[in-house]
Amino acid sequence: MNPIATGKGLAVVTGASTGIGYELAKCAAQQGYDLVIAADEPQIQEAALKLKEFAVSVEAMQVDLATQDGVRRFTAGIAALGKPVDLLMANAGRGLGDSFLDEDLQQAQRVVDTNIIGTIALIHDIGNRMKTRGQGRILLTGSIAGFMPGSFQAVYNATKAFINSFSFALRDELKGTGVTVTCLMPGPTDTEFFERADMLDTPVGQGKKDDPAFVAKVGFEAMMDGEGDVVSGWKNKLMSAAANLTPAGMLANQHRKMAEPEQTKN
């Protein structure tokens, strides 16, 4: 990476090639922030070209943040720019459908490595730099899925429960440091998530979904306002509120109705 131009500030966005991550990067660019964006696919370069239309500097890295080496290369690249990170939007995530025992174990473990291991490693590195500086904003993309046991999406929902919980704890730990932590908790969103998770033959995969631009705008504004958490969309707000009052066994059964593949139903 080359030294980045001086703009309003520097925003780092992971999982930024498409979907919510791209739209979060777009929100930052529209506000005049220079960008460092990452994804594990070559489309990240196409995203960078589009984001440069906002007259900000954009550095793109194709890197696998599910691996320790990928996180190290990414954080080293950011440090080499010589510019502090003002905004960190840890959005990289991976899903996986089907019943747990029918899933490929390596793919299931990759969901954990991406959603949890890589995320906390990245935040530990950049978060420490923010804390030392006494300034910074962190946004984690959690999910309303973290409020319910995810039958036929068990590993993914469990990782989002971790992210939701982790964000609240980290926010409390960072009180008075000048660093804020916000958790964005969307519901089903119109991205490539369901195709990549092999969930197109499920009711949730075929159902109506939220606009990723709307979801990102809600999350970005909440982060900039220093809010602790935000659920995007009134239907998702109702679902998350109801989940807090519903027994776990009932929630798991409700989730089955949304996420069970058609071919497994008899």
From TrEMBL:
Name under which the protein is recorded: SDR family NAD(P)-dependent oxidoreductase
One protein family per Pfam: adh_short
Alphabetical list of Gene3D superfamilies matching this protein: NAD(P)-binding Rossmann-like Domain (3.40.50.720)
Occurrences of domain Ketoreductase (ranges): 9-191
Source organism (scientific name): Rhizobium deserti
Phylogenetic classification of the source organism: Bacteria, Pseudomonadati, Pseudomonadota, Alphaproteobacteria, Hyphomicrobiales
PANTHER family documented for this protein: OXIDOREDUCTASE EPHD-RELATED (PTHR43391:SF12), RETINOL DEHYDROGENASE-RELATED (PTHR43391)
Residues in coiled coil: none
Alphabetical UniProt keywords: Oxidoreductase
Keyword Oxidoreductase attached: yes
